[in-house]
Inverse folding.
């Protein structure tokens, strides 16, 4: 079974998306979870991801799709990613 794919996406560009990606990876390591995290510096048109973690500015565009969306306001705060993202990740892992 392939790992879950998590898109890290920010309206402010690839550098902030890269920060978000690193924070997501840290949270995954802390919880001993495996997923492929990648930077999406634009709205994804394909369905080749399982979850998107993004900023408020892009959330609406992603919510139009049939995938879970986690909205993060502080990309430097791993506790926010953890609090909002881990429950969804665990649910997705149980489905697979």
């Amino acid at each position: 079974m392939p790992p879950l794919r998590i898109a890290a996406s920010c309206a402010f560009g690839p550098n902030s998306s890269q920060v978000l990606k690193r924070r997501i990876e840290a949270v995954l390591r802390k919880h001993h979870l495996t997923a492929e995290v990648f930077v999406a510096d634009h709205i994804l048109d394909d369905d080749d991801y399982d979850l998107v973690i993004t900023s408020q500015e892009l959330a609406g565009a992603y919510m139009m799709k049939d995938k879970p969306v986690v909205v993060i306001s502080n990309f430097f705060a791993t506790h926010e990613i953890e609090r909002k993202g881990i429950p969804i990740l665990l649910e997705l892992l149980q489905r697979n």
Q: What stands out?
A: The beta strands are 4-9, 35-39, 51-54, 69-71. Helices lie at 14-30, 56-63, 78-95. The chain has a mean pLDDT of 89. The longest strand covers residues 4-9.
